[in-house]
Every structure is written in C-alpha cells, then in structure tokens.
Amino acid sequence: MSYFADLPVAQFEGPDSRNPLAFRYYQPERLVLGKPMVEHLRPSVCYWHSFCWPGSDVFGAGTFNRPWHGLPETLESAKGKADEAFTFFEKTGIPYFAFHDVDAISLGTSLREGWSNLDAIADYFAGKMEKTGLKLLWGTANLFSHPRYQAGAATNPDPAVFAYAAGQVRAMLDVTHRLGGGNYVLWGGREGYDTLLNTDMRQELDQLGRFLTLVVEHKHKIGFKGTILLEPKPCEPTKHQYDFDSATVHAFLANYGLLGEVKLNIEVNHATLAGHSFEHEIAYALGHNLLGSIDLNRGDPQNGWDTDQFPADLQETTLVLYRLLQAGGLETGGFNFDAKVRRQSIDAVDMLHGHIGGVDLLARALLNAEQMILDGQLAAFVQSRYAGWKQGMGTDVLAGKLSLNDLADIAAQTPAPQPISGRQEMLENLVQRFV
Amino acid sequence: MSYFADLPVAQFEGPDSRNPLAFRYYQPERLVLGKPMVEHLRPSVCYWHSFCWPGSDVFGAGTFNRPWHGLPETLESAKGKADEAFTFFEKTGIPYFAFHDVDAISLGTSLREGWSNLDAIADYFAGKMEKTGLKLLWGTANLFSHPRYQAGAATNPDPAVFAYAAGQVRAMLDVTHRLGGGNYVLWGGREGYDTLLNTDMRQELDQLGRFLTLVVEHKHKIGFKGTILLEPKPCEPTKHQYDFDSATVHAFLANYGLLGEVKLNIEVNHATLAGHSFEHEIAYALGHNLLGSIDLNRGDPQNGWDTDQFPADLQETTLVLYRLLQAGGLETGGFNFDAKVRRQSIDAVDMLHGHIGGVDLLARALLNAEQMILDGQLAAFVQSRYAGWKQGMGTDVLAGKLSLNDLADIAAQTPAPQPISGRQEMLENLVQRFV
Amino acid sequence: MSYFADLPVAQFEGPDSRNPLAFRYYQPERLVLGKPMVEHLRPSVCYWHSFCWPGSDVFGAGTFNRPWHGLPETLESAKGKADEAFTFFEKTGIPYFAFHDVDAISLGTSLREGWSNLDAIADYFAGKMEKTGLKLLWGTANLFSHPRYQAGAATNPDPAVFAYAAGQVRAMLDVTHRLGGGNYVLWGGREGYDTLLNTDMRQELDQLGRFLTLVVEHKHKIGFKGTILLEPKPCEPTKHQYDFDSATVHAFLANYGLLGEVKLNIEVNHATLAGHSFEHEIAYALGHNLLGSIDLNRGDPQNGWDTDQFPADLQETTLVLYRLLQAGGLETGGFNFDAKVRRQSIDAVDMLHGHIGGVDLLARALLNAEQMILDGQLAAFVQSRYAGWKQGMGTDVLAGKLSLNDLADIAAQTPAPQPISGRQEMLENLVQRFV
Amino acid sequence: MSYFADLPVAQFEGPDSRNPLAFRYYQPERLVLGKPMVEHLRPSVCYWHSFCWPGSDVFGAGTFNRPWHGLPETLESAKGKADEAFTFFEKTGIPYFAFHDVDAISLGTSLREGWSNLDAIADYFAGKMEKTGLKLLWGTANLFSHPRYQAGAATNPDPAVFAYAAGQVRAMLDVTHRLGGGNYVLWGGREGYDTLLNTDMRQELDQLGRFLTLVVEHKHKIGFKGTILLEPKPCEPTKHQYDFDSATVHAFLANYGLLGEVKLNIEVNHATLAGHSFEHEIAYALGHNLLGSIDLNRGDPQNGWDTDQFPADLQETTLVLYRLLQAGGLETGGFNFDAKVRRQSIDAVDMLHGHIGGVDLLARALLNAEQMILDGQLAAFVQSRYAGWKQGMGTDVLAGKLSLNDLADIAAQTPAPQPISGRQEMLENLVQRFV
Predict the structure, then answer these.
(1) Four-way CATH pick for C31-375: 1.10.1040.10, 3.30.230.30, 3.30.590.10, 3.20.20.150
(2) Is D103 marked active-site?
C-alpha cells in the first residue's frame, strides 16, 4: 500500500474553504486572460527534495524515514520509489515534475552502468507518464554530489572529469528528449571556486563555455526542441559560483556566443542570496529575453543559505506574475517547486501541505496579476513616465541621430529640466489593492 | 597661511620608524620587478572627500569646519580651495589626484555658467599642476547630487535630463583631456531604480548604452587617449544600480557593443557591497581584459553602506597586487583613495594620517607581491593544477575537436577520474609567509 | 495658504474604493474585539521626516523645497512649520504625532537659548493640540545630529557632553510631560563606536546606564506617567550601536537595574538590520515584558541601511498584530510611522499617499489579526504542542523538583521519545487564509 | 600502520623556514610577558571535524574516505579511531583536544547503552591522555544531530526529550570531569525555532534556563572545577537560535540567575554570522566578565553559513590577543580550532597544513600583541581619552551624586563642549606597525 494511501487528492473548494488539503484558488482549467490557469503556470513537483532527501542537514541526520529510503540500489527499488512519487504527484494535482538522473536511480560505479540504469528507469517513467498524464517540465544531470565533481564538472582542472560529465549530460539530455521534457537545466553547483588561490578563473570559464556549447550542439543534433537553461546561484556549495546571477550569466553567454541558445531558470532563493529581489531577476531576464523557467521556492530573509521553502509571499509572487503576463508569459518553462518541507515536517501529509500551499499561492498570484492587467493603471503610469522617449529629441537620441556636442548645445538652449515625482508611495498603495 | 601649514611633508623613514607621519614602505622610486614603485601604483588623492565633504552623515551635520567651507561660491573661493588641496597633495607625497566637475567649482544655475566656471578653474588647476608636477589620474562629472538627477542622468525618464547630463560630461571630458588626465570615469550613482513599479528597466538600459556610446564617440573625436571607465556599485543611493558589479557591467558592455572601448574602475567597498571579495572583482576584470583602475577604499565588514575608509587589510591588498603584477599591471589606471577620514577625525592631521597609512599599506602590499612573484610557488601550483588542459584531450576539447558524443565515448572507455586535493590550507599558509 | 490646501482629508470609503486618497480599511471607531481600532493602533505621524528632512541623501542635495525649508530660524518660522504640520496631520486622519526637540525649533547656540526656544514652541504646540485634538505619542531629544555629539552623548569620552545631553533631555522630558505625551523615547544614534581601537566599551556602557537612571529618576520626580523607551538599532550612523537589538538592550537594562522602568520602541527597519525578523523582535519583547511601542517603517530587504519606508508587508504586519492582540495589546505605546517618502516623491500629495497607505495597511492587518484570534486554530495548535509541560514531569521540571540525575534516571527507564511533526507548512497555509 | 604515518611531527623552525610543515612562530615554551606561549593559548584540536566529518556538504557526499570511516560501530572501531586521532594530535604539536560524546563512540539506541559505551571509550581516552600528555580543553554532548532533537533538546515541546538530553549531558559532564577537562560546553544548535508560528518563545527559554540550572547544580554536586560555557550562534541549523550572540546570552543568563556560573565560548564564525566583528564579541564578553574560551575558526566574509575555516586574519587575531593580554588572559579556556579542512582537501597532509597554519597564526598574533602591550601607545591613548571620567564632575556622575537637574544646571553654566578628534586613522596606522 502506498505511503500516501491515506491522503486525499487535492481538490478546488473555493476561497472560503477551511479544508487545509483543498485548493482555494487553484483551478487548472479556469481561464485567465483567455488561457487556462495551468497553461500559464505549468507547475511542477521536484523529485529530489520529496523523494531523495532524507531530512538531513549539516548538523543532523535524516528525520524522514520514508519507506523507500535505505533500500538496496536496484531497479526494483527505483521503480518502487517512482510508484510512490507518481502517486504523490497525482495527489497534489500538479501536472509536471522535474528530476536529476541520480534522483531516479543509482548510476552505479561506471558511466556505462549509469547509462543502462538510467535507460531502464526512463522506460518505467515513460510508462507512468503515459498512464497518469503527468509531464516532464525539465530534466537535469547531477554534476555536483559525487566526489569526482568536488572541484567542478565542466570547470574541473582535470579534463577527464569534464569528459565524464559530458557522458552523464549526454545520457540525461537524451532521456529528457525521450520523455518529452520541456527544458533541460544545468545548475553549476560546483562550477565555481572555494579559493581563488588555486583557481584560474578564465581557464575555468573557457571550459564552461565549451561544455555548454557542446550541450547546445548535441541538443540540435538529436532534435530536442526544449530550451537549455542555466540556473544562476551566487554561492553554496562553493564559495563563489560562476553563474552568480542573471546578469553574470548574461555576460557569460554573450562571451561564448550562446545568446539565443540558452536561457535562465531563475530561483527565488538564489535571487535573494545574490543580493537581488526575485522581481529584479525576473525583470532583468525578461528585459533581455533570457527568461526560461522559474523555481518558486523562497529562502529565509535572515538566513544566508538555500532554505528551499515553499513560497509564502503573495505580493512578490503577484508582481512577478504581473510582469510575466505583461511580457506574454513563459514558453517552454513553468513554475517548479524546488522546495522541501522543513526537517521537522516528517509526515506524509506535510508534503501535501507544502505543495498545496505553494500551488495555491501561485494561483492566487496569477488571479491578482490578471486584475492588475485588467485595471491597467500601473502599466499606464509607467508608459506615460517614459513618454518623452517616444517622440522628438528622445527618439532622435535613441536612433543615434545626435552627438554629445549636439545634445550639449540643445541642453544649453533649453530651460533646465525640472524633477518630476516618481510617485512610489502611490504605486505601492495601488499594488495593495490587488493582494 | 595654509590650513596645512603645520603638517610635515611625508617622508620615507623605513620599516622601523615610529614617526606616525612618515612612510615605512612607500619609496616612489624604489624599483619593484624593475619598475619604480610609483609607476606600478600611480596613487591618487580624491578631491571630494577631503575638500568638499563637510563631515556630515545621514544623522548629523558636518563636523569639519575647514576654512574653505561655507564661503560664497565664487572663482576666488574655488581657487582658494584648490590652493589648499594642492598644498595637501604635496604633503602626502601622492602624485595623482581625481575630481568631479562640481568638486572644483560651483556649476551655477545653467549649463553655460557651469561650462564657464569649469573652464576658469581648469586653467587654474593646469597652472598648479605644472608648478607642482601633480597629475590627474581621472576626471568625472557629478551626475547624481543635483535634484535634476533624482531619477537618473542617462537613465532619466525625461530626455531633457539626458541632454543636460550630456552637456556636463562633454565639458568635463574636455577638461580631463586638457589636463592630461589618464582616464575618464562614469559612476552611475542614480542610474538605477528606487522601485521597479515605476521603472522600465530595458528602456533605461538602452538610454544608458546610448549615452556611453556618445561619450566614447566624443572621446575619439577630441583625441583623448585615456580610458573611459565605468565604476560598478550595486546600490546606494538607489535601491539597485545598473552597474551592480563587474560581471553586470560586462554584460552591459557586450550588449551595447562597447567592449574594448570601456573598462572598469573597481572599488573595494563596492565589491564587498555586491557580495564579492575585492580579489574576485579584480580576478573577473583581469580575466576578461576589463580592468582599468582601482579605488582602494574599503567598507566595514558589518555595515551595509559605503563607508569609504582607508585600506587596512594588508593580506587582501597583497593578493590583489600579486594578481596585478602577474597580469602585467595597470595601464592608464592607478590606485585612487576614494576614502574619507571618519566624521570624528576632525583635524588637518587626521587627513594626513589617513593618506599616509593608505599609501604605505599599498606600498607594503606591492613589496609583498613582488616577493610572491619571485618565490613563484603559488603560480607554479596553479599552473600545474591545470596542466591537463594544455595537452591531449584537454587541448582538443578547448579547440572544439570533440563532440558531446565523442567525450561520452572517451569517458566510458577510461577509468573514472579520481579526486585530487585542492591544497587550500597549504596555499593559505604559503600566503601568510608574504604578509 | 497652506502647502497642503489642495489635499483632501482622508476618509474611509471601504475596500472597493478606487480613490487613492481614501482609506479602504482604516475606520478609527470600528470595534475590533470590542475596542475601537484607533485605541488598538494609536497611529502617529513623525515630525522629522515630513517636516524637517529636505529630501537629501548621502549622495545628493534635498529635492523637496517645501515652503518652510530654508527660512531664518525664528520662533515665527517654527510656528509656521507647525501650522503646516498640524494641517497635514489632520489631512491624514492620524491622531498622534511624535517629535524631537530640534524638529520643532532651532535650539540656538546655548542650552539656555534652547530651553527658551523649546518652551515657546511647546506652548504653541499645546494650543494647536487643544484645538485639533491631536495627541503626542512620544517626545525625544536629538542627541546625535550636532557635532558635539559626534562621539556620543551619554557615552561621550567628555563628561561635559554628558552634562549637555542631560540638559537637553531634561527640557524635552519636561515638555513631553507638559504636552501629555504617552512616552519618552531615547534613540542612541551615537551611543556606540566607530572603532574599538579608541573605545572603552564597558566605561561607555556604565555612562549610558547612569544616564538612563538619571532620566528614570527625573521622570518620577516630575510625575510623568508615560513610559521611558529605548529604541534598538544595530548600527548607522556608527559602526556599532550599544542598543543593537531587543536582547542586547534587555541585557543592558538587567545589568543596570532598569528592568521594569524602561521598555522598548521596536522599529521594523532596525529589526531587520540587526538580522532579525520584525516578528522576532516583537516576540522577544513581548516574551520578556519589554514591549513599549512600535515604529512601523520598513527597510529594503536588499539594502543595508535605514530606508525608513512606509510599511508594505501585510502578512508580516498581520502576524505582529496577532501577537499583540494575543498579549493584550500596547499600553502607552502606539504605531509610529518613522517613515519618509522617497527622495523622488517630491509633491505634497506624495506625503499623503505614504501615510494613507501606511495606516490603511496597519488597519487591514488588525482586521486580519482579529480574524486569526476569532478562528483560534493557530493558538490552539501552539498550546497543544507544549501541553506536555503543563502536566506531570513537565511541571515538575519547571518547578525545580527534579535534578539532572533524577531526569537521567527517568529517561533511562522510559522508551526513547519519538519526533513529532512541527507542521510548519500547514501553519503557513493557515496564515494565508487571513491575509 | 597509522593513516598519518608519513607525516612529520611539526617543529619550530623560525620565521624564515620555507618548510610548509614547520612552525615559524609557535614555540610552546617561549615566554610571552613572562608566561609560556602555550599557557596563554592552550590550543586545541577538535575531534569532530577531523575524525568524524566525512567531507560531505548539503550538496555532496563525503570525499575523505578515511580508513576509520564506515566501519561497524563497535568499541574496537572507536578505539581505532582514537588511536588515529591521538597520533594526529601529536603530529600537530597541539596539546589540547575537545570532543562530543558521539564523536568518541556511537551512543547506540538507548541511554543506558550510550552511557556504557561512553564510559568504555572514556577509559581508553584516559589511558591515551596519560601516555601522551594530551589534555582535554572541553567536553560537550551532541544534542542536535539525532532526529529526536529535531525540535530542540532543552527547548523541545516534549518534556521527554528534555529528560533524554539531561541523561546525555549528565554522562558527558561526568566524563569531562573524569578526564580533567577544563570546561564543559553547551552549544544549543537546535535550541531555537524554524518558525515562530508553532513556537512559544518564552516557554522554551524557561525550559532552557531550567536545563542550564540543572547542569550548574550537577557540576557543583560532582565537584567539577571547570567552567560551564554557552556557545553563541545566531542561526544554522535553525532559522534562529536563542543563543544569538554574547549580549543575548548575557540577557538570558541574567534572566535566569546564572551570571557568575556560566560563561561564553565565542567563535569567530558565529560572531560574524551574528553581524558582529570577532573583536566586538570578545570586547563585549571581556567587558562583562563573560569570556570563557574561544573557537578560532573563521567564516567566509561572503558566505552566510558556518564554513569553519582555519584562521587567516592575522590583524584581527592580533587585536583579540591584545585585548586578552590586557584583560589578564583566559582562565580555564583556550583556543580551540573548531575548523575543518575544505571538502577538496582530501589528503592526510591537508589536515596537518590546516592545524599548523592555524596555530602558527595564533602564535604570531600573540607575539604581535605582546609588542603592542610593550609599546603601550594604544592603551595610553584610550586611557587619556576617558581621563575626564576619572576626576571631578565625571567621577561624581558615575558615583550617582548628581541628578538630571544638577547636570542641566552645570551644563548651562559652562561653555558648550567642543568636539575632539577620535584619531581613528592614526590608531589604525599604529596597529599596522605590529602586524
């Protein structure tokens, strides 16, 4: 009998429901600006936090004791874990999932063994996906947990590690393609340094640029239509990671000719660790056509590490959804919950609470954002604020028709410009109307 | 009589000197790896903190009461201030200085008045520079203090402010050229946002890209041979500035076709506010051929704003100098002290203590770095760590001769790579030998 | 004519109002758990940010140009400013205010002149308060802006500065008493250090303990029934302030025998600068009977200085109100908006937007908290979680009836305790129902 | 053969030695201000990081593969590990060590089994200590790793967990006493909260106060002469720990009547995580007679978690040693290296590099501090800065002879005090002379 047998399938019951295991806002088929909610959001459960992590932290052992933990590493045990995972996915009402190669099955002690194991479990996943209708938001290879990657995968000083990583990514990209995944993600957890003293940064970046180029070439070769995504994070586990934030990855992609081929998977928790608001990272990515997908898990405002908590900030999420709707929404991406229940939340039902709360907050934010779009005041304010750049001298400047001397002359002949209020408080109050 | 009349001219007295107003390490003409110390360092005093700032902070009035504060804003008072400044520069033994247009003289109430005032005081500076031999490390225009720039200069929603800023920069770039300045710096103190709610980020970046292009074009037009520098800073005064850190500026320059034309002025305090070590920012800039010049003032590790203190970390400065020497050193740049004495350090002698301590620590770091270069162990370790990439498969990978499939095949046919110690503790101990 | 003549008096229009200058939630007389909203909240406008601060920051001049700025420092100009302030207070519908001595009028160049000026303007305030019904939440003396306080007031190395501060506080405490103020606040903006190198910390704390004791003694002597409050802040303007956070002040009060006499004025922005959540600081203060009053202004999550913004986090404010209602609410304290409009918000109407938004969010949070209290689920969960401590061995332990040996023996004879879920996700979802 | 057989015993070779496995400064018997260096420092190796931690982190498996890892949990394997540990201790030349109960041996599945195991290994330790002369700086019980402590030990909502913890501490305190330990440390790694939503903070603090009282009573009962120490840390693993920093623990001890009975074990890394400099925490503790012992491991300035690195900041360590020497030094405490080699430092020699570097930096700092004491300038400056408080009105104020009114009168009759320079830059330069 499934570990989750006693749990209900989460259902929509409306905003007034007091049932803690029901949705109050999430209705997948409800139309939002003419498109079903689920197509806007494409929400996703991650495999690793719910089915692999044992509830350990740096200072303590696992607390979870799930029945599938600690079994021998066989195909059978991997299938058993998958059975539980897919059962749970269905209870949550969330239609997508995401996984690393090593989440699904042990990769054994050699590349060939890993490939073989991965193929076998991929077949099993394929069957379950067909049966349940669940879809793969993205796949990824774990290039950071095994000791061989202690000094990085693509950025390792040892080319043999680079090659090993290539072998692992090739297999997982193929599997992602086979399972119809929407995206393939690379998180460079060890692509950084612990100390600059032993590091040749440019050398390592050249390696990373090459690696990513190989992945892009392979994607095209196999006809994968999903998006290749990098996931920025400033640090942890290393002292400093090369994919620090959106802008840093932007520079990297520009430097290695990968713009247009690679986009970003932006995580709330990683944004705040990098000293940015989540909204900033989204605005930067949208402004540069770099946004691919989103990991909606938050950090703790007072803690300097990745806490990977379910979202709880309705206002922030609303503003991000508003930006997304304005920009036309996600394409192949979605909203993945790279989130884990707290180490003290040891029961099966806690997993359900976490996911229901997360997707419901996301749905509510979407509905709020829809109202902001329909209201139109915020957009109108911003548009009018920059109106001067859509006419006259403003247009000429941006078109490159005026030199520094021209502009100096113009300015000297015009009355000095006067400051205009930015109306921040009024706009902040306006937002409160929608949350 | 000068405010500084009682102060001695700082002299080198050697490491054992107990004279607090003497240099223990700074000997401008001492050869370091064959080049005079002063040519390596090109140290610079900034005009603003020592001669314009009154010792105020957000919670308190100015404490300094220098004789040149509070005088009517005339050419005479500007000259008087310049007399004091140049007297002080000579006492410090530091051969370069840097200034904003508004530091030198009031710009009055119109662009034309500003141009005229600036021209007049530039003539006076020219005379003093000729007489004293002091040189201009860089010039810059203040595009952030006047209320007209409250919403940015180049990134202002009002094109008229953009034009006004163009007028100001044109004049100051011309003056910098006339005074033989080594560089022209743009710090975008208001080129950012206070709230995303009223901001079109991409629009503003397009404006900023255009502005910088105009500056570069003007530089070439007038034949200025110095370097155009952007100065990264993540925030303060705005919530978020567009020139967040080196990598962000890198992305910006790439996006607007300005690589090769514009470099970076990296400040210690700005690096740490952005969540990086100073060494990281330097390594990033050197690795991408972006390093122009350095502001050596530090922040406080526990304070989240720009404290602009004189440097006090010999080890950090040593490691930066080591990187610089390895990379061939600065070209047009130098080490500017964008540093201010504490608000409680109200006497003339405090200014001298600050500058002597700063330049002496810098000189000592240079001598340490020279020893590290001569020792060679650190460089040899790093080189050997990446040796695998200079031969065989490593070379082929970087040359693009192998596909993902090729590498997967190779890896599958080779024994799995084994981890190698990064020797961080040994290297950290090695560094202690030189500080 | 008043600067604010064109502004309406803010009125309650209900949640559906689209009028940006109306309240949607704030109804002073609405009963919340049987007590009028206004008595729960006692909201307050601060004098300094709205009527003294010119819109300057560290990098720029004032942008506000209010008509009362820059006038000669006379009693007449002070009265004129007060006229504007009280007019504005009435427009906001907020019934309390707070001020420093120097906000109301210049203190001139001697203590006697300051006393005389303060007396005169206090009379004028008294008349306006009688006429308008406005009340004083708290008074305070500014012991940080004048250069004499550069090295602290009570903690100054010079006892003469301590005495001067005593003279200033005596006068302002008397005035606060005369105006019927509910509290007297001491914020130790310079009671800290810029460097430990020149500081004798214990000596300075002894001075501060003495100073506070003198204030408490004086309070009793004059029969002031309000509360003496310290306001924790970790740093800024100094590198480190002695009133770092609630717990640090708690230790200080315990050390100098001031518990029971002095409570805390907790500010959101100061809490977060100290590395705590606002909710934590409130919980700590309530748990130790230390909470006096609250400054509701928030900081920016990404900025490391005091931004003093109007509140915008409904969830956080709701949770704080919930704790307050549970604990019986504030006594002499209230919710002061030590908040300023952004430097770009230069119009009169921006001031009104800020205050309306702030008080409306506060009112909404109160209504949310009322629902949480009525719902009772959260309180019941917490109570049941600790139920073991209200019976049997739990009670005996807390009563001191069992030794370490006793407990060891008991534990050895009982089955090892099993972990119980903390249900964090369920509780977080529950909170979402009320915001 | 020992894992460490190939490593040399570290020897003093003097500052010019280029031998990376020799001491350049550490000479245990060298007299510093008349006392042997080793008695000043009492340096200590920790058992856990070097002999229990496998080199894992949140994102990756252990990298170390020490021969004693992964063995069956028997007394024999515990003895084998102890043999290796003591061999290593002797190679480092460091005379003290520290350990948790669970570091030495598995505690099995019941309290009784744990007691029995601990007793057995304690006997073995006693024998090795006698043979080698190694001494125990402190002992401690691990009340945070086992799942039963997920919600705290003393602060657990379940009194049975409190009792279990009592059983564990009783045993380890007895063992510490038996082994002649200098101190007994309690680090409350789970004594905090993950969310305030399910937490009664005051209830938990009352439990913690009781627990600590029981420990103190037991100490006296068994005649343990060492010091009971709490170790402040602001967070990690929990969101917020109750022993946030020195001042918070100070308040806690005052509140539960434990001042004089309990002191602090201050860790560099914990100080900086709490937003303080290391020097601040030491100054606070010394100023309040709270300093017990020191953990010298540092954090990374850019990382928001406990990195537990060996010290590398000579200047900071020098200033702390200077303060310590001034205050008379440590009593039962010492300098423990709660430090681990980096996860990439996988070889036996890396462990030796780490410890040699740490103790050598500490020794060098001590020698620097000795010079600062002998020089006397810094102390003289501070003393003269507060001279006004040792005479006349200053003395009367501190003696409580003057009221607020008295002081106001005095101040009004005296010329207003004038600011005096704090000479921060001069003092910072002075410090550079000694590092």
Answers:
(1) 3.20.20.150
(2) yes
